[in-house]
Amino acid sequence: MGVQRVVIPYCPREPFKPFHNRQQRFGAIVAHRRAGKTVSAINELIKAALTCSKPNPRFAYVAPYFAQAKDVAWSYVKHYTGVIPGAEVNESELRVDLPGGGRVRLYGADNYDRLRGIYLDGVVLDEFADMDPRAWSEVIRPALSDRQGWAIFIGTPKGQNAFHDIHLRAESDPDWFSLVLRASQTGLIADEELESLRAELSDDEYQREFECSFDAAVEGAYYAKLINAAADETPSRIGRVPIDPILPVHAAFDLGIGDATAIWLAQFHGREIRLVDYIENNGVALDWYGKALKDRGHTYEPLILPHDAQARELGTGKSRVEMFEAMGFKTRVLPPSSVEDGIETVRRMIPRMWIDGDKCAAGLQAIKQYRARKDEKRRLTLGPLHDWTSHAADALRYLCLAYQEPMIKRPRPQSQVGSYGWMG
């Protein structure tokens, strides 16, 4: 059977031609809104799946959420593979099987454990700034290893987070491909439209969404500015924070049911709050967290638990308070409180925090991106967005609510009775 020529109805936009012609295995594309990055990425995956010489090649597009992958990219996949004879579409799994054994499939990083155990020859991570960074380091990167697969991170800036780190690496490492597409330079959006956008958006919004600024503030972020200020202080309050063996350690939990459990480990010294470690996992039993605490060898104050830790599980008939106490821990259950009041408490306390940048890296990334939900149509803030950042943020909120101001001993005032008696 001879080679069949297939023409896919895609004409690359000029700014994306370097992407399609790159030789590097890894890369990052920082692009303004409506630049066409998703269309370019999907066509790169299709081309690679058709031309890869390895047996049964597998390529993936990963969005922050599975539903987002379907809404944003699935119609493009079907459109551009629709001209390929023999292409088979699987709607339920969001995948297309191509002649020759190649496959393109869509995933969501909200359930990145679903990718464990698969292999990949290439992957595009779209809007990586909205993903839990562990989706890449723990699951996707290992999936590329034995096939020497490639990866491209694409997105628009949302502050100085994991995507910002990837961008900096791509900019500085010659083995990485880097492309930055600003609306003022690409010519993809008419000048009069850019002027209209500039008039309607805040300066931070415009700089972030159309000029690809990582320095612009993320709208609705609760703690990002305070964390950045802590890093910029002299000396920086984010760095190495050694554990003081004299002080006990406070462990504050956000207990997930069906999702992640997060723990901040802290020491209180006077009015200083020292964040010395961070633990997060999911899909494991409660005793895993007890062992993780004991393995660190610290002396713990009563564990700080949210009010729902007293609820009894149907399977065991025990509460999580009882389970921790059976492991030998003392516990302290916080009363119910307003999330908004707790957020304000955290904001007041961040200026007195010292944070271990290495041991708390995952938690630090999360609290920097913890933000409010927005109703774009009505331009309203609807309270905290519940996503992968919520666990770290909730645990930090419980830690701050549990903090008690130290008692300050003041000298007793001198008696007014002196050598002259009461009358002076």
CATH T-level fold name of the largest domain: Rossmann fold
CATH domain class of the largest domain:
Alpha Beta
In the sheet with the most strands, the strands line up as: 3-4-5-2-6-7-1-8
Total domain units: 2
Structural class: alpha/beta
Protein model, in words:
By secondary structure, the protein is of the alpha/beta class. It folds into two domains: 14-210, Rossmann fold (3-Layer(aba) Sandwich), CATH 3.40.50; 224-402, Nucleotidyltransferase, domain 5 (2-Layer Sandwich). 33% of the residues lie in helices and 20% in strands. The chain has 14 helices and 17 strands. The strands form four sheets. Strands 3-4-5-2-6-7-1-8 form an eight-stranded mixed β-sheet, sandwiched between helices. The chain is globular, with a radius of gyration of 26 Å. The protein starts with 16 loop residues before the first helix and ends in a 22-residue tail after the last helix.
Quick structural gist:
Helices cover 33% and strands 20% of the residues.
